[in-house]
Design goal:
It is a single chain. This protein is of the alpha+beta class. It folds into three domains: 2-307 and 340-380, Aminopeptidase, CATH 3.40.630.10; 519-602, Alpha-Beta Plaits (2-Layer Sandwich); 608-845, Rossmann fold, CATH 3.40.50.880. 32% of the residues lie in helices and 19% in strands. Strands 26, 27, 28, 29, 31, 32, 34, 35, 36 and 37 form a ten-stranded mixed β-sheet that branches. The N and C termini lie far apart (70 Å).
Length: 848
């Protein structure tokens, strides 16, 4: 049967990785289904549609005998991942019958085309191979292959390349995001799971299969080593089991050995990519006790080879955390590549060796890998039992209880053990109500729990500072504490595991998603109110407005049949009761009956425009679109040619997502420098220029609202002549530095922009401006919505130079002409993760 299977070259009509050829995802899908049809070693599963409706595939490759017993093997693997309650004899039996589960994903970043081109060849080799190594791999492992993590982007990039192949623009980067919402940021979504592709991968890794090994194939810059493999470099993130870091060394050493054996030059280990980085799957997986790693191949110009002169090869300076000091032979880089032509085929050859090497060592040491998987789970559980705190309590009666529910449901998708109290608990003078969530440390996923929920402090030491004291730039944000991002308060349990579980307390395990409360509460004789503290309330309001139901807003506190509500409540009148009742199942929020008639202000469905540029696209713009869509806000994307004439007749609000002025206005000299003189087709050289600046200024003068997020504030301040200074501009990094940290702010909750917010909140500050209002005749036109406290500003992350922002404004509203400018000196909707500050954006969109 194997002889009848066509190899990839004959199927696609070219060898994968050959010059100027890219196999498109739809054809790759056809090939995998052909393999499924012709071989009993592979099972192809369509997990569902991608963001834009393309198939997201999982290929399960193993021996025919294992294929026939997949359900049993998966159940055994679940016991190995969470062996609590099993006897030694039961564990020995599970290890004896179990298989090592190896998961590998390809081309999460769609412009990094090589891994998805490699995937058909890797599958073919395993499906048809008859050598001893392949047979052992198939017998002892279950290989879970995700041939393309980003199907939509793969098709975009392929079509883009083919459009310009043979022209001066051949191999240039796409002008727009290669994922509808996030572009390159899709591997920053493994913990929040906003994207459907992330949800599929989380289900594979954290719920269904619990692999012992995960490898994610990527590409990196062209002028350094040819391939970077595990282990990671310093600094080391806490909370991972020590065996994880030893395993990464073990797998990396075997890969490096096999690559060197096969004659591949330029392989580096233990460098470039730190062990503390963003919580993508290849980092987050380590805290799930999955040895999770990267391969990073030197890139090319998509399918076009590049020539690299020997003198162009080098390291990077010490300003970046992942620097390598030079391009010379060293213990982790003994065989530097000398330069020359570099192509996708070169990448595929090295990736094939790396991918097979991981499976090879797993198959050779099946018992060891499975025994250590049990060890990691039991040791992490034991550490949790010995922690002075038993875990975290999360109260359901918080400022925004519906966002608490959202957080819990996201954590459940991580496969985390979550329980709920059946009765009240009292510790010292603190009473936790029945229904309080309890997330124990005594579980195999202790590392995940602590990583995502515990305050985090970036190490400030010799690993993270240069010789002159300047900080080395971290790879990404320095904290991913999702509860802080979401505005959910997490309480460390004040007693140990033993004291909490001694029989006095009654807990119930949560086994499925927690439903959102909804419905009408009370008779609604005077109408119904939606609490402005609920993020989900804004989604409900937008659904009401879309149905032409009148919604208004109350500028003062009000008492309802269910609760006391602060200023900013949304109101629907009693006349609309039947129409509102029909909508309640989809709104996911409770409507509280008003006790008396109230004065209110009618809302008008907002007319929102958001600027979108080319030059590779703007990820913050994409995330902003996703945030608006998740909460039911309609908007219009506007480009350069749309920013002219009478904007006020079409829009009430214009959003400028986080961006630099030169990229928005179109300063081609600055952009060419940034893009390293990459050729760009003329129609994709964007920038709204002086005419756009004038149109935006006129829009605000005539009554429009301009929203500027993070670095886009500089454009608004400079071009509209606002009397505001960014006090941290130009300060050396060793005096002020804040690379993606959660900071404390005080909120003006009586202002319309602060409606529904708590008086103390947390914001995401990542190289953000810090404001000072310059003294002028018009001081009263500048309103402070959020400001930093005088001390103790840092909640999680890294902050150098607290004194430079202490007491300063973080968010301003400026009356300008007949309109206003809203300036967010932070990432208000960061990667659709900072639920705790979404309301600050949403309030501005209603134009009150």
């Amino acid at each position: 049967m194997a002889a009848a299977i066509p190899d990839p070259s004959s199927f696609f009509g070219f060898r994968p990785g050959s010059e100027r050829n890219i196999a498109r995802w739809d054809k790759i899908v056809d090939y995998f289904y052909l393999l499924d049809q012709k071989s009993d070693r592979i099972r192809v599963v369509d997990l569902g549609p991608s963001t834009e409706g393309n198939p997201f595939l999982l290929a399960i490759i193993t021996s025919a005998e294992n294929q026939a017993n997949l359900d049993e093997i998966r159940e055994i693997n679940a016991q190995i991942a969470d062996p609590r309650g099993l006897s030694d004899a039961e564990l020995d039996q599970s290890i004896k019958k179990g298989k090592v589960v190896v998961c590998q994903s390809m081309s999460l970043h769609a412009s990094e085309i090589s891994a998805t081109q490699m995937a058909p060849e890797l599958a073919y080799d395993l499906v048809t191979g008859k050598d001893e190594t392949t047979e052992r791999i198939l017998d002892n492992t279950i290989f879970l292959m995700v041939p393309c993590f980003n199907p939509d982007g793969q098709m975009m990039v392929t079509d883009w390349y083919n459009e310009y192949v043979g022209t001066e623009y051949e191999g240039a980067a796409m002008p727009r995001l290669y994922h509808k919402y996030c572009g390159h940021d899709n591997n920053r979504d493994a913990f929040m799971l906003n994207l459907v592709e992330s949800q599929y991968m989380a289900k594979i890794m954290f719920q269904d299969w619990h692999p012992q090994i995960f490898q994610d194939h990527h590409e990196m810059w062209v002028y350094g080593p040819r391939l970077s493999i595990s282990p990671y470099c310093e600094p080391l993130h806490p909370h991972g089991d020590p065996l994880i870091w030893r395993e990464l060394n073990w797998y990396g050493a075997h890969m490096a050995y096999k690559l060197e054996e096969a004659g591949h030059q330029g392989v580096i280990t233990g460098a470039i990519f730190p062990a503390w980085s963003h919580m993508g799957f290849h980092w987050l997986g380590n805290y799930h006790n999955i040895a999770s790693m990267l391969t990073e191949s030197a890139t090319a110009r998509l399918a076009t080879p590049v020539y690299v002169h020997p003198h162009q090869l080098g390291g990077e300076d010490g300003s970046t955390l992942h620097a390598i000091p030079h391009y010379k032979a060293q213990t982790n880089f003994p065989n530097p590549w000398p330069g020359g032509w570099w192509s996708v085929r070169d990448m595929i050859e090295q990736q094939l060796v790396a991918a097979k090497s991981v499976m090879d060592i797993a198959s050779r040491y099946r018992d060891t890998v499975l025994c250590n998987a049990v060890q990691k789970a039991l040791r992490q559980t034991k550490r949790g039992e010995e922690d002075p705190s038993a875990g975290f309590f999360i109260r359901p009666d918080q400022h925004d209880p519906l966002t608490v529910t959202t957080l819990i449901n996201i954590l459940l998708r991580q496969g985390i053990d979550i329980q709920r109290t059946r009765t009240c608990l009292t510790f010292d003078d603190t009473v936790y109500p029945a229904g309080t969530y309890f997330i124990p440390f005594a579980q195999p996923k202790r590392g995940v729990v602590k990583t995502l929920l515990e305050r985090t402090f970036w190490p400030d030491d010799s690993w993270t500072r240069q010789k002159d004291g300047s900080p080395s730039r971290p790879y990404d944000t320095v904290t991913d504490t999702m509860a802080e991002m979401m505005g959910v308060h997490v309480d460390p349990v004040p007693v140990s595991h033993q004291n909490l579980t001694d029989g006095k307390h009654n807990f119930a395990c949560i086994t499925k998603s927690v439903p959102m409360p909804s419905g009408l509460i009370g008779d609604g004789a005077q109408g119904y109110a939606i609490d402005p503290r609920y993020n989900a309330g804004y989604r409900a309001v937008n659904a009401l407005l879309e149905s032409d139901i009148r919604v208004s807003r109350i500028p003062h506190a009000v008492s309802t049949s269910g609760r006391s509500i602060p200023p900013g409540a949304f109101v629907v009148k009693s006349a609309d009761k039947s129409r509102v009742e029909a909508l309640t199942p989809e709104t996911g929020v409770p409507f509280y009956s008003l006790r008396e008639s109230v004065s209110d202000t009618t809302l008008v469905k907002p007319r929102i425009a958001m600027y979108q540029r080319y030059w590779g696209g703007n990820m913050d713009e994409g995330w902003t679109r996703l945030t608006l869509e998740q909460f039911g806000f309609s908007y219009q994307t506007v480009r350069d040619d749309d920013l002219k004439g009478d904007l006020n007749s079409a829009y009430d609000t214009l959003i400028l997502p986080d961006d630099t002025t030169d990229m928005m206005v179109g300063d081609e000299d600055a952009i060419k420098k940034r893009l390293q003189n990459m050729p760009v087709p003329e129609k994709y050289r964007s920038g709204f220029g002086e005419s756009g600046v004038e149109a935006i200024s006129t829009f605000v003068e005539n009554g429009g609202t301009l929203i500027a997020i993070n670095n886009a504030c500089r454009f608004a301040i400079d071009q509209l002549g606002l009397q505001i200074t960014n006090v941290v501009s130009g300060i050396p990094s060793k005096a002020f530095y804040c690379p993606g940290s959660m900071l404390r702010v005080r909120m003006n909750t009586s202002h319309t922009l602060g409606y529904g917010m708590p008086e103390q909140a947390l914001i995401m500050h990542w190289h953000s401006p810090v404001f000072s209002v310059n003294p002028s005749y018009y001081n009263d036109q500048y309103e402070v919505i959020a400001s930093y406290p005088e001390k103790d500003v840092l909640e999680s992350g890294w902050l150098i130079g607290e004194e430079h922002l202490a007491g300063r404004p973080a968010m301003l509203s400026v009356n300008h002409g007949k309109g206003r400018v809203v300036l967010y000196g932070f990432h208000v909707q960061f990667r659709t993760q900072t639920h705790g500050t979404f309301k600050l954006l949403f309030n501005a969109l209603y134009g009150m």
